[in-house]
Structure formats: structure tokens, C-alpha cells
Amino acid sequence: MDQDPAGAPGYDAAVVDLLGVLAYGELTAFIRMAGDCDLAPTLALKTRMGHLATVDFQHYEQLLEHMRERGIDPDAAMAPFVAPFSAFHERTRPRGWLEGLVKAYVGDGIAKDFYKEMSALVDEETRAVMSAALEDAGQADFVVEIVRDTIRSDAAAAGRLALWGRRLLGEALSQAQVVAVERDAMSALLVGGGLDLGEVGRMFSRLTENHQRRMTRMGLDA
Amino acid sequence: MDQDPAGAPGYDAAVVDLLGVLAYGELTAFIRMAGDCDLAPTLALKTRMGHLATVDFQHYEQLLEHMRERGIDPDAAMAPFVAPFSAFHERTRPRGWLEGLVKAYVGDGIAKDFYKEMSALVDEETRAVMSAALEDAGQADFVVEIVRDTIRSDAAAAGRLALWGRRLLGEALSQAQVVAVERDAMSALLVGGGLDLGEVGRMFSRLTENHQRRMTRMGLDA
């Protein structure tokens, strides 16, 4: 029990931030993906995209419920993340269905990697609610198939989407950097106390490597 | 059993249409309402709106599943309704959060009234799946409260929203008229065989009366 992270100074503030950023991320992903249903070329694809969106909304509601049970005000917890997420989404508006798809897959992947990194550092109860939100029945896998199919017959799309993937990662890390500096309790959690931008940077490297693996899986240059 | 509607000529085609229009209506309502989350002024309201949207998507998925079980191709069943729904949504783009709210409430109400009208005319199995999609834990009631609060302090909004409500009903009935004429098997279901525009018109009158009741409930002139 002496290893219980819950004992560390600033721990409670870090958990509030963590739950806030996860919840707000799910909410904005839901809104974006539901909007991207409009871009989907077939009803079957609208359905897949809509399903992904509602799964994110369910995770969002689970996170809210958990915050309330824990006496955390969800609005206050999410507030610091409204600006960085809206900056990210403003700068990465998909110009078509394929860009929306790749964004959903890449964004979902980065979010899940971040969940995994952080869930090793929190108490059991928080970890349980994070794992539930992490649950993934491979719903996003259809994206890989569609992107691979498209670029087989369209080399220009492959180049454009590879660039798009790099831009998505760049914008995500740039907003994450802002968050890391401003929310030092959450960043401190990564290193067991005190803000260490070196450790934050190493986490970013791991997120980048996983991102590159996902790009390769879609058949795109990372 | 001689009263079983399933025996009537054209019955199967009518049920395919009915399930198709219900399912596609839920899908487009989901996409619109999720998009309107962006317009909501607070996180709490984004959450309410998002919840309404995902409930509609769950109904949509239930209807798809039922169609597949019954050997109906959902894409083919929904196809005839893509154009009328997109005409309706094109012509009724909310110019702000309040218009989006009123549209969600009015649209949901009209759809539910239509469900109720039609569910009296179908076989038990179809009725069961329609009832599940009708289920309503009063999620849209928060709309009434918000609209009443707003117009108490803003008489101009009351006038504008009353006009907006009339426009929504007009556009909905105009698209429904197109559907009634083009999908005569579904219309025939209303009168037990043969297209009877008089009976369709009487149903429209009932839908209009219920709409007016909902407008009054929001404190708006119908």
C-alpha cells in the first residue's frame, strides 16, 4: 500500500484533470464522428461511423457518472480542456470522408495510448473506469480496410493522407504540450511528483511510435 | 386472425417502407442532434443533447437488426427516404442553439406521433420493434424548460421560434406528402388497401394538432 499513487501530493488534482481530459476528449470525438457520418458515401458506412461515435458517448457518460460518484464536478474538470480540443479540431477539419476516417482512427489511437500510459499510474478505482472507457471491440478496424482499398487504386490519395496523418499527430502533440505545461499536477503524475518535461517528452515519443505503427497498418507512410 | 393486417396485399412492401422511413429518420436525427451539441452553450446541455442523439442511434440499430432478422435489406429499405429527409434538413438548418433545440423537440414529436399512428396497423412483431424505438424516458422534456425560460425574458425570441415551429411543421408535412404519393403501399396501409389521400390528409391533421399542443407546451404560439 505504500506504493499507492493516491498518497502522492497533488494526486487528487491530477486525477480530476485526467478524468476531465478523457471525458472531454470522448465528447468532442463523439460530436466530430457523428458529423462525419454526413460525409460517409454509403448508409453502411454512416452506420459504422455512427456506431463509433455512440460508443464514445457512452464512455463519456460513464466517466461523468464516475466523477459525480467521486464528488468531482465534471464541468469544472473538463473546462481546462475546452480550448485545446477546440484548437485541435479547428486546425484539423477533415476536407472529406477519407480524412475524417483517418482522423477518427488516428485520434482514437492516440487517445487510447494516452489512456494506457496514464492508467498504470492511478489508483485501482480510477484504473477500472479508464479500462471501461478503453474497451474496444475493434470497431475502428474497418477504417484500415477502407484506407488500404482506396490507396491501392489512388496513389495521390496515399500521399495526401500520409501528410494528413503527420499533421494530425503534430497538432495533437502541440495541444498536448500546452496541456502538459498548464496542468502540472497531471504531468507530475507521470514522474511521481514535480513537472518533468523530459518524461513528458519520452511519453510523446512512445505515442509517436505507436502512431507510426497505425499509419503503416493503413498502408500510409508515417 | 382474419383481421391480421399481414394478410393484406402489399403489406410486406408497406412494412419495408415503414421500417425504412423510421430507421432513416432516426439516423438523420442522430446526425443533426449530435451536430447541434456544438451549438449548446454549456457542457451540461451538450451532454443532454448528445444523450438524445445516442438514444436515437440505438433505436436506429435496433431497427436495422430487426430488418436483417426479417430478411429485409436495410439499405434498400432506407434508400427511398434519403432525398426527402435531406430536403427537409437542408431547408431547416437551425441558425442557433434554440432553433436546434426546438427542431429536435418538434421533429421527435412528429416522428413519435407517426410511429403511433402506424403501429396500430401492423403485425405484432413489427409493433414490438416500433414500440421499443418509441420508448421515451422524457429525455426531450428539458427542451420545454429551456425554451420557456428563454422567452420569458426575450419576447423577440418567442415570435421567431413560433415562426420557426410553423416552418418545421410545414416542411415536414410537405416532404411527408411527397413520400405518401410515391410510396403508395405504405399509404395504403393507412386505409387497408388503395391509396386514399383523404385519409393521409386526416392523419396530417392529427399530427398538426399534436404539434400545436407541443408548441403551446413550450409557450410558443402554434
TrEMBL record, chains A, B:
It holds the Pfam family MiaE_2. This is Hydroxylase. Residues 11-193 form the Ferritin-like domain. It comes from Phycicoccus endophyticus. InterPro entries: Ferritin-like, Ferritin-like_SF, Ferritin_actino.
